[in-house]
Amino acid sequence: MMIVEHLKTDILILGSGGAGLFAALHALKANPDLDVTVASKGLLGKCGCTRMVQGGYNAAINPGDSIERHFMDTIEGGKWLPHQQLAWTLVATAVERVRELENEIGCFFDRNPDGTLHGKAFAGQSFDRTVHKGDLTGIEIINRLMEQVWARPVRRLEEHRAVALIPAKDGALAGVLMIDIRSGQFRFVNAQAVLLATGGGPTMYRYHTPSGDKSMDGLAMALRLGLPLRDMEMVQFHPTGLLAGPDTRMTGTVLEEGLRGAGGHLLNGAMHRFMADYDPKLERATRDVVSRAIYAEMKAGRTTPNGGVYIKMSHLDPAKVAKEFKGMVDRCRDCGFDLAGGLVEVVPTAHYFMGGLICDVDTATECFGLFVAGEDASGMHGANRLGGNGVANSTVFGGIAGDVMPRWITKNPGHREPDLELLDFEVARAEHPFSRPAGDLNALREKLLDTMWDDVGVVRDRASIERGLATLETIEAELLANGTADRDRCFNLTWHDWLNLRSLCEISRVIALTAMRRENSRGAHYRSDFPEPGDLATSTYTVARQKAGQIEINDAPVLFTHVKPGETLIRDPIAAE
Questions:
Q1: Which of 149, 225, 387, 418 is surrounded by the most beta carbons within 10 Å?
Q2: DSSP label at 274?
Q3: 493-517 and 217-224 helices, crossing angle to 10°
Q4: By C-alpha distance, which of 25, 357, 82 is closest to 199?
Q5: Interhelix angle for 441-455 vs 462-481, to 10°?
């Protein structure tokens, strides 16, 4: 058995995106005497998805907007499936958090001539409320957060991969088993409280936006611990991923919502502006609607040379486009496209995961000692996330977790002893590929990408989902029969590719099973054999849980705690007079 090094900390934060770094800062502010450790699969501030955010941060801060309006946009965009108290907490705290980002973290956002924060237009929203730094908002936020964390006594475990949540004998969380990627050494980090903030990242689809290190590890670990996962069928496809052909990893990268919000046009291969055929809001319809429209054009064969559609911005003045969307113009130029003055090929791309671990408003989970924030958590967005609500979600609930965990430790002090049998089992599970002959992992990954895109993608039906589940079973069986030829543990990236693929297979199965369970079409989940949304007043969400190796799927009723379908919290100013 591999020797496992034991470390001890008060708070262990898994993930160094917006949620993880905000949690670290808030935890130390709440109690500077705590030992806070941030573990990251890559390098702090240089990996993950927050850094890749282009669009911006939704906050109801300007005259004419309101928290109630932002809330209603979120609920209606989520097709009445969100957990309403979580959604309310998101929109209400976002106002406070954006001020904190400016005044305490040191972020610079774009401003109007009168000095107020500029809000750009994003699809599915009734007000231009998306605060931003050009189209490079994520880099601004993560760089400033990283500087603040580096200035504090935060312990960093960089290039450490979490492989298992390890409970004590009584079921409370004792800590996390990790692999030091540099040395290949196993480390068990014993913590009083753990925050799961590893991010989602639906990279099991042929076209996807998240960074390559994302493989759903956090949700896979929660699943194996038997924790309940909500809304797992809800995979958001961003309508406009760059389509640069199969020979570049840039394919799938987001061309953000601001392009359509600013008035960009979508054209099919015949140069027809097709969104008028699908929705009166045209290009500013919600992401799910635009993604399905593009997918329909692709299925009908009305495509561009690489098999997608075009986005066109030149009618908005190329010089203005080049100034306002510099990051995307530069990125497209690197791939041979002229975004400002020409046409760019795009395709729907798996972007964000609305599903995740069930949690309370204070980020606590069913597992004593485990908290969750960011894309690993679920309920805030329901069936569809509004553009600009993602980084707001991470920073809002990351900060809440950082506030809550020190108080929780005060009430529940002490480190718990891990279940050593389970620890040994998880070490052996992670070492599995060293006991098998080398196989073609890349071929299995390619098969997974095609299976999820074709069978459990933008449009689904029973036959395609059943086909996908059958193929997933063969992929996982082949994976378990194959391993890695390289037995050296140090920076063994083939080992980590194998572990990535196993996590992706586990979560792909849950996505498919919950997609089979939901026999209606809501937001990101579209069943062509059940195209109607169903009765909003009796809405349910799916709950997936693993028991004895089997996935159980159940439904639970959505609680309309703040507003019911057919009602609104927005006061009609005319009626009020």
A1: 387
A2: G
A3: 70
A4: 357
A5: 170
- 374 close to 15: Cβ distance less than 8 angstroms: yes
pLDDT band at 556 (very low <50, low <70, confident <90, very high): very high
CA–CA dist 473, 312 (Å, integer): 41
Alpha-carbon distance of 164 to 266, in angstroms, equals 44
Contact indicator for 536, 511 with CB cutoff of 8 Å:
no
d(CA 224, CA 219): 9
Dihedral, CA atoms, 220, 224, 230, 233, nearest 10 degrees?
Answer: 50
Residues catalogued as catalytic:
238, 260
Pairing of strands 130-131, 155-157: unpaired
- What is the model's pLDDT at position 574? 40
| Residue whose C-alpha is closest to residue 542's, from 378, 307, 345 | 378
pLDDT classification of 24: cutoffs 50, 70, 90:
very high
Structure tokens at 284: 């500013």
The token pair at 567 is: 């009602």
d(CA 555, CA 514): 10
**Beta carbons within 8 Å of 179's beta carbon, 6+ residues apart:** 160, 161, 163, 185, 186, 187, 430, 496
Amino acid 577 reads E
Q: How far is CA 508 from CA 350, 366, 373, 453, 471, in A?
A: 13, 23, 21, 11, 11
**Average model confidence (pLDDT) for the chain?**
94
Give the integer Cα–Cα distance in Å for 125 and 129.
8
